[in-house]
Specification:
Order of helices and strands: HEEEEHEEHHE
Strand content: 35-45%
Helix content: 10-25%
CATH class: Mainly Beta
Strand order of the largest sheet: 2-1-5-6-7-4-3
Number of domains: 1
């Protein structure tokens, strides 16, 4: 049963959630049909989700680019807000692919500032300079093809 439109987040609320939340969860398809679910830091620009990651997630997305991302907040049911993106991931395999992405530089600044070295202290904007390295460290861009949002604050009490 679909979530009623009146319980959805507005586009402004989605932007606010995506730029202030620290963690997303990404589900990828592993070997066979096994689901790999992992929390990651992320950026949001141009309606796309960006993350810098390594290992099984990158291997899975190279083999099958289908991914689901969840960003939510609050613990109690009447306060739950979230957004689920289903889409396709692109692994940016080298610096040329990174430089060709129209939003990666914005995301580098956003993430460098948001995560502040992993501790989140307020500080001057910084650039996340991470780049493709080794066999598996890569930027990944998820282009949503289907989006579901909810805002349980809007439920009638």
């Amino acid at each position: 049963m679909p979530i009623p439109k009146e319980l959805s987040l507005t586009p402004e609320q989605v932007d606010e959630l995506m730029t202030t939340s620290w963690n997303m969860r990404i589900a990828t398809v592993g070997p066979g049909t096994r689901i790999n679910l992992t929390p990651l830091w992320f950026g949001w620009a141009g309606g796309k989700i960006y993350t810098y990651c390594r290992g099984q997630k990158v291997t899975n997305l190279r083999r099958n680019p289908v991914a689901t991302v969840l960003v939510d907040r609050n613990e109690r049911f009447p306060e739950l807000q979230g957004v689920m993106f289903q889409g396709r991931a692109t692994v940016l395999e080298d610096p040329d692919a990174e430089n060709a992405d129209p939003h990666l530089e914005e995301v580098r600044m956003q993430m460098g500032t948001k995560y502040a070295g992993g501790h989140g202290e307020p500080r001057e904007p910084q650039r996340n300079a991470a780049s493709a390295r080794g066999r598996h460290w890569r930027w990944v861009v998820i282009q949503p093809t289907h989006v579901v949002t909810w805002d349980n604050f809007k439920l009638k009490r």
